[in-house]
Design goal:
The structure holds two protein chains of two kinds.
Chain A: H1 2-14, H2 20-49, H3 53-62, H4 64-97, H5 103-115, H6 118-129, H7 136-141, H8 150-160, H9 164-176, H10 179-186, H11 191-220, H12 223-229, H13 239-248, H14 252-289
Chain B: H1 2-26, H2 31-57, H3 62-69, H4 72-105, H5 111-117, H6 120-123, H7 126-137, H8 144-147, H9 158-183, H10 186-194, H11 199-228, H12 231-237, H13 247-256, H14 260-293
Helix pairs in contact in B: 2-14, 3-14, 4-9, 4-11, 7-9, 7-12, 9-11, 9-12, 10-11, 11-14, 13-14
Classes of the chains: A mainly alpha, B mainly alpha.
């Protein structure tokens, strides 16, 4: 009787996994695909950059044009990321904490820059601020340059990285609900204190990941920036545009050297992302281990 | 008199109840501020610039607009862009499911690193991916040198575009399917097995239907991203008119010739398509939520 029972259990367990050979084949195919499509391109960047030795690699980075590209990229990210950070927090607060008419439509609009081609994103700013654009004549009369200058690059970058932080925060804040904030308000905290001492500690890891991803995209944006930059060497070239110019001039080592900086940035981004995800899990687990105050409110995310 | 008191009583009962409901909704301050700022920022960064695009097209007559968006070279670019994006999204559908499955269901050494690596195409700038894939697939590259003797040339051909689009689209499918697979109830699979289903039947009849909405969402996202992609494609495509010229490149080409109206017309077509794709993705996500909520 117990023998039959354990056989049933074993069968049931076998029913939720595959035969070993199927498992190993699937793992091998998946890993091979990732090796070919993800690892090889990443490795190729560093291999090509170091093909003529470390000296040539450093020479590629020491050029004045490369330096000004690095500086412009940093400036762009330093402006674009905080702007989108403030927006992301504000948008996540009003979308996650309140119910209002048109919320779904607003969420869709926030996502819109994700699906707009970067080239189209650049074009819209040319149409607004370019010589023949809406504000073109006025800007020319006042001697303000936006297109083919730094402000245009910043604007295009802001557009392309617009939803990243909001997208990261909205589901996180929705999952956490309003209970803690309401308790803080009832206990007499101001709205600002509530955000700073209650909400922010809860969302910090998600926020960090949103910021780091937004930063990676801001520094690496190519299509939109390429349309508005005008490719003036030493002035309006970001690192990705610098990479393109060098590559088209067959300066392969220098191109890949500059590209390797961005690849390093991508790797750092992935590491921070993994840490943030891990810390977030820890936080969730710690919260789950607290004694329940009410019969399991968090287990039904769909009930709202 | 009794009627009056009952009305008063009803009023006294409903007023606090209503106030209470409103208070619980709006007890948190900052709704006006955050919504106002969100709408303001959204308008100046996204909505007004995009409307500039729409208004610019009104300077064209319908004939001019139609001529700009239906020129043979532009039509060829649509075919290439949508064809290559579709093939890449289908490849990602299969391999994205496979990778998500392996990451959720199996244990193997280095799994954490593999899991983190899936997001590489999100983090790696597209231009870097473009030159790197080109270097790999060129006739003297790590991969290209083995393909060339076989008569397979990928770089500077439409096939190369598909490779680049597979690269940038992969995380979308993996990251939409992975959480759904993690939440899938094993009891259903156990039940299927106990009722005599083979493992393959369990997969196709029990697991696959439950992850179909997520799969399609990931597919649509990968497709939408691929249609607009520029940076990674232009390096590997070769950019031959009529053969390997993608639609975003047509826009750039028109801009470089100061044909703003023509560029705008093609851009509007792309914008409309990306808006439709966004609505499709939203509908798929709503379906997914209903699907997940249904058994509970």
């Amino acid at each position: 009787m117990s023998g039959a029972n354990s056989r049933t259990v074993r069968r049931a367990r076998a029913g939720t996994t595959e035969a070993p050979w199927v498992r190993y084949t699937l793992i091998t195919v998946a890993l091979l695909f990732m090796l070919l499509f993800l690892v090889l391109p990443l490795a190729a960047v560093f291999a090509e950059a170091l093909r003529k030795g470390f000296g040539a690699y450093l020479d590629g980075l020491r050029e004045p044009d490369a330096w000004s590209a690095i500086k412009l990229t940093l400036i762009t990210a330093l402006i674009a990321v905080p702007l989108n950070l403030v927006f992301g927090v504000a948008a996540a607060w009003c979308i996650a904490k309140y119910e209002f008419r048109g919320k779904a439509f607003l969420t869709t609009l926030v996502d819109l820059p994700f699906s707009v081609s970067p080239v189209v994103a650049g074009l819209v700013y040319v149409l607004m601020f370019g010589a023949q654009g809406w504000f073109g004549p006025w800007l020319q009369a006042h001697d303000i340059k936006i297109i083919f200058a730094v402000p245009g690059i910043v604007l295009a970058t802001v557009f392309v990285t617009f939803p990243f932080i909001a997208r990261e925060l909205i589901p996180l804040m929705q999952a956490q609900g309003n209970d803690e904030e309401q308790a803080a308000i009832v206990l007499g905290a101001t709205g600002w204190q509530t955000f700073w001492y209650v909400t922010l500690p809860n969302i910090k890891w998600g926020l960090l990941y949103g910021v780091i991803l937004c930063n990676a995209r801001a520094m690496g944006e190519f299509g939109a920036v390429s349309v508005v930059s005008g490719h003036i060497r030493g002035q309006t070239n970001t690192i990705p545009l610098h990479v393109e110019i060098l590559y088209n001039e067959y300066q392969s080592v220098a191109a890949f050297a500059a590209a390797s900086l961005l690849a390093l940035l991508a790797l750092v981004t992935l590491v921070i992302k993994s840490i943030a995800e891990w810390r977030n899990e820890q936080q969730m687990k710690a919260a789950a281990e607290l004694p329940p105050e009410r019969p399991a409110p968090a287990t039904a995310p769909s009930a709202r | 008199m009794t009627a009056a008191t009952s009305v008063a009583a009803r009023g006294a009962m409903t007023a606090p109840a209503q106030a209470g409901r409103r208070a619980s909704k709006r007890v948190l301050p900052g709704f006006g501020l955050t919504l106002g700022y969100t709408l303001f920022y959204l308008s100046i960064i996204v909505l007004i610039p995009l409307s500039a695009l729409i208004f610019k097209t009104f300077t064209l007559t319908w004939e001019q607009f139609w001529a700009a968006i239906s020129a043979p070279r532009v039509m060829a670019s649509y075919r290439l862009t949508f064809g290559a994006s579709f093939i890449a999204a289908v490849v990602n559908l299969f391999f994205g499911l496979l990778i998500a499955w392996v990451l959720v269901r199996y244990k193997f050494p280095g799994k954490k690193i593999v899991d983190a690596l899936v997001d590489l195409p999100f983090a790696l700038p597209t231009a870097v991916a473009g030159i790197s894939l080109t270097a790999l697939l060129a006739s003297n590259g790590w991969v290209g040198q083995y393909l060339e003797p076989l008569g397979i040339q990928l770089a500077f051909k439409p096939a190369g575009i598909v490779i680049a689009l597979i690269f940038i689209g992969l995380p979308f499918v993996v990251r939409t399917v992975q959480p759904v697979l993690e939440d899938a109830e094993k009891e259903l699979e156990e039940a299927a097995t106990c009722l005599g289903a083979t493992r393959l039947q369990t997969f196709t009849k029990v697991i696959l239907p439950s992850i179909t909405p997520a799969l399609l969402t990931g597919f649509a996202m990968a497709f939408a991203r691929a249609v607009g992609e520029y940076g990674s494609v232009i390096f590997i495509a070769g950019n031959m008119p009529m053969i390997s010229e993608i639609t975003p490149l047509i826009i750039i080409g028109k801009l470089e010739q100061y044909d703003y109206a023509g560029a705008t017309a093609v851009a509007v077509v792309m914008l409309v398509i990306s808006f439709i794709l966004l609505l499709v993705i939203n509908a798929l996500q709503a379906w997914q939520r209903r699907h997940a909520g249904a058994p509970a």
